Amino acid sequence: MNIQALIYDGFDELDVIGVYEPLRMAGFNVALLSLHKQEIIKTAHGLRIHSDGILNLENKPDILIVPGGGWVNRSPQGAWIEAKKEDLLQTLVSFHKAGVVMTSVCTGAMLLAKAGLLAGRPATTNDEAIEELRLSGAKVITARVVDDDDIVTAGGITSSLDLGLWLIKRFAGQDKANEISKRLEFEARSPVWTRNSN
Length: 198
Description:
Number of helices: 7
Number of domains: 1
Structural class: alpha/beta
Largest sheet: 8 strands, mixed
Strand order of the largest sheet: 5-2-1-6-7-11-10-12
CATH class: Alpha Beta
Order of helices and strands: EHEEEEEHHEHEHEEEHHE
Radius of gyration: 15 Å
């Protein structure tokens, strides 16, 4: 399975690493990719990360992880600024149309919302952005992870671990998710909302 995470200046580190590590531990290939050629990405808290390459539909993943960061405080770098970039929003739409499972952590959901992908759909985000998510037209669900088949959203930053374990359960089975949970010494928090929840 090919999994990619979008990284950009100002993204929150844990939004990506919290998903990345469980997925890698489970044996999935995960690449960290930027929208444009960029040697170094500076994260919200100053960590510098090398991009593995550039997002490209010719090398589309099965799953794309979209992190947040900088949305709530309207940071000059982060999701708030990225949401104003039409090329990023169009890329998200194109990947979704191409059949990529779109996932987000924290205010990464606001990027999906700004791209028009959450209108009328169940979703969650950071508690401090819930009303903005609701105003975007999403159907806000109170849950750590909301799995609406081709779009999966997770709440605030620590829910990145829950998202990682949920994706392992969904794509590799409960036994593998249990194994990785034990190795992480982290028990997934609930609830997880799925279409079958209702």
